[in-house]
Design brief:
3 helices; eight-stranded antiparallel β-sheet
């Protein structure tokens, strides 16, 4: 299986990327547990899946993304990853970029943009300004509308 460097791979403008933001509650009672997965696909499709207990909702939409996402991901791939302790059993949140639709013989590690992992007790920060840009972009687009009360 071919191993490819994320940095070298990210510089290839022909590769498209998907962005993923995941979050989940930490160690808690099952009825208090929740999770969310937001995926922004290269074609502008966005999917937000939220789970609480045995209930799951999926919201899909289409965005018009302007700008050079591949160049921003390439810059983020060059960032240095800094780690620090994070409370075990706390909530987790992760921002990552993935090369999309690769041949099955190519193995590619995701580009970590930011992560607080209550499962491992480690916080990982990508020090690239481009990683912050992608994280902010995901935060803006992964929001769910607030329901209005009747």
């Amino acid at each position: 299986m071919a191993q490819i460097s994320p940095v070298a791979f990210a510089k290839d403008k022909q590769i498209s990327y998907r962005l993923e933001k995941t979050s989940s509650t930490g160690f808690t009672a099952p009825e208090q547990a929740s999770s969310s997965l937001c995926v922004l696909y290269p074609n502008g499709n966005i999917s937000i899946t939220q789970t609480a207990g045995g209930l799951t909702s999926v919201r899909r939409d289409k965005l018009s993304v302007k700008g050079d996402l591949s160049a921003i991901v390439a810059a983020a791939a060059q960032g240095e990853l800094n780690t620090a302790p994070y409370p075990a059993d706390a909530n987790s949140i992760s921002y990552r970029a993935f090369a999309d639709k690769l041949p099955p013989y190519v193995k590619f590690k995701p580009i970590v943009l930011f992560e607080k992992n209550g499962g491992t007790g480690v916080e990982t920060v990508n020090n690239s300004p481009a990683a912050s840009t992608l994280r902010n972009f995901m935060d803006m687009n992964c929001q769910t509308p607030t329901a209005t009360q009747p």
